[in-house]
Amino acid sequence: MSFYTSLSGLKAAQTDLGAVSNNLANVGSTGFKKSRAQFGDLFASSPTQSTKMIAGQGVRLNGVIQQFTQGTLESSDKTLDLAIAGEGFFVVRGAAPRQEVTYTRNGAFSVNANREVVDTIGSKLQLLPVDADGNATSTALADATDLVLPLNSPADPSATLANVSIGIDGLVTATYSDGTSEKLGKVAMASFTAVEGLRPVGDAHWQSTGDSGMPLINTANNGPLGTIRSGALERANVDVTEELVALISAQRNFQANAKAIETAKSMTQSIININ
Fold this sequence. Notes:
The protein is of the alpha+beta class.
């Protein structure tokens, strides 16, 4: 029995090592959220047995849980580098035909050949419609549209785009060469009742699940969504020193369980030789 108990510990230590190693590997990934492996003990007995006479049967993996704490904000010189100071997520939509909606903290946006504002995997940043005063007229995901930067002013085609600004409330404003401006919309943001239930799909992107609940769509400066910082990026929430300590602990745990398995094997062999 001790062999299988130590074997479960060996597998748990291997999983823990994997989670810590992944955290360290992504210390430079924009918007990355670290994970922690969580474990529980195994214990089994019949109703008639005294628990004082039974040892535990090992450990099991309860889950690898991502931790959505705020990462450090780092300044950049790009207007389309966006960071969230809060709990919200950017809403992005993939390319046709699937046009899958995902949620990200990676705000390294750029402009593609079609003048669409896209993230690092080519998904398009979503905007909510606004009125003349810049107030959102809808918070329905179905009403969100792709952010496309105009070439010219709709009022005067001879006036070209001179500048784009994004406020802390997510309001995107285009300014033209003739001095006029146009409110393009507000950056759509999402929050979830249980962020730990989100399914990671890579590159600091997540999908909603039944465990996370449906996304609550709104704009920045509303509830826990937080504010948007233009000209900044969110670094990974990984503390290298903390991860190195966890790495050493997991490594020692692995070695201890490996030694216990070796000892159990040696004892079993000794018993066989006696017989």
